[in-house]
Amino acid sequence: MSARGPIPIGSMVPLTGASAADGYEFRNGLWLAIEELNARGGILGRELVPYFVDTGDQSAERVSAAARELIRRHNVHAIVNGYNIGAQNAEYEPIADAGILYVHHNTLLQHHDTVMGDPERYFGCFMSDPAEYWYGQGFIKFISWLRDTGQWKPASDRLAIISGSRPYSIVTANAMRSSAADFGWTVAFGPEIVKTPTNDWEYAIELARKVKPAILANTHFYASDIAHFQRQFRNNPIDCLVYLQYGGMHQTFIDVAGPAAEGVIVGTVVGLVRDDDGAAYGRRYRARFGPDSTPEVGALSYSAMHHYALAASVAGGTGEPYEFTQNRKVAARLKDITYRSVLGTIHYHPAWQAAVPYPDATRDPSRGMPHLFYQVQDHRKEQVVIAPVPYNTGRFAVPPWCTGAGTRPGGDPGLMPFG
C-alpha cells in the first residue's frame, strides 16, 4: 500500500449519448464529494484526484474499455459512478482482475446474481442503490397504499404498463405485472415494449386508452424521452394516474415537459431526501454547478464517494490495483458501516452487496434506502415527496387532468409507510 502521493479515483460516466444529462450530474457529484473530502484532509491526509472516462452508449465494450483505461492508465484505487445500464456487468471482469473497489448505481438485479455467484472474485463490487426489481414491486405497494388509506379512490382495478426496450425497464415492468394480482390489481394492458430511445409515444398511449386504466405506468427512464411522453399524454389525457420513474426527477424532464408535468408521480429507489442535510447539500451543489443543475442525480456519486472514503479511512487506507489484501479490508468496512447519506441510509446486504430498500425489504428506515415517490405539484417549484413516511414533505394531490368520480381524494396517509 502506497504511503504517499494523491489517491486516484476513477469514474465511468456517459458524457455523450442518451444518458449524457445524467452523466454530467454523476461527474458533478463526484467532483463535489472529492472537493469536500480534500478540504477535510482527504483520506488519512492523502489528497483525492478524480479521473473520468466517457462511456457513451454504455455498451459492454465501451464500459469495460473505460474500466481498463482507468486501471491501466490512471492506476485508480476505486471506481465510483452512477449507472451504466447496458454493460450488464461486463465491466466487473477487469475490475475483479485488478481487485479494486467498484461502487456504482446500475440498478440491476443481475448484480445480485453475479456477486452471489462468486463472492470471492467480486468482493469489491457494490451497487449503492437497490435493484430495478424493487421499482416494480414497490410501485404496486405504493398505489395500493394510496387506495387503502383513502387518499385516492380508483375508478377500477385496471393497470396499463408501457416499457422501454432496455432490459432494466422490462424487468421493472415485469415485476409490476407479477406483483399486481397480490394487491388486487389487474394488468389490463402491457407491458407494451416501445423501442427506445424515442420521443414518439402516441401509439402506445392510444392502445392503453382502450382499456380505461386507473393507472398508466411507463418504466422507461431517459428524462427527455419521458418528458415527451408526458406532453403527448396531456394533449389528450386519460382519466388515470400517471407514474414515471427515475428520469422524472431530473431537471431536464421539467424543462422539456413544462406545465404538462404537473400531477405526474415519479418513483425512484435512489433519490435525494428532503431534510435539512439534503437541502443544504442541494444549495451547495447548485452554488457549485448552477441553478439548472440536478442535485438529485449528482447525489448518487456524491454519497457513494463519501461512504467509500469513510470505509477506506477506517480500514487504514486505500489499496492500489492488485493490492487485494488491503482492498478486501476496505470492502469489509464498506459492508460493516451503515452510512446515513443525503439519499437516506446506505446499508449493504451482506450477500447481495447492494443497498437494501425501505420499506420494500425492511421496515426500519435506519437500515434501508428510501424508495421515494415524488409528485410534481407545481413545475416551477421543487417536487413534493409524498411517500414513504417519514421522508414525505407533503401529500398526494389529484392530477389536474383527472375529472372522473373515481379520482376524488380523501382519507389520511397516517404514519405507516406504504410497504
TrEMBL record:
UniProt keyword Transit peptide, yes or no: no
Domain Leucine-binding protein: residue ranges: 6-351
Alphabetized UniProt keyword annotations: Amino-acid transport, Signal, Transport
InterPro entries tied to this protein: BCAA_transport, Leu-bd, Peripla_BP_I
Domain of life: Bacteria
Transmembrane segments: none
Family to which the UniProt record says this protein belongs: Belongs to the leucine-binding protein family.
Record PANTHER family: LEUCINE-SPECIFIC-BINDING PROTEIN, PERIPLASMIC BINDING PROTEIN OF ABC TRANSPORTER FOR NATURAL AMINO ACIDS
This protein's name: ABC transporter substrate-binding protein
Record organism: Xanthobacter oligotrophicus
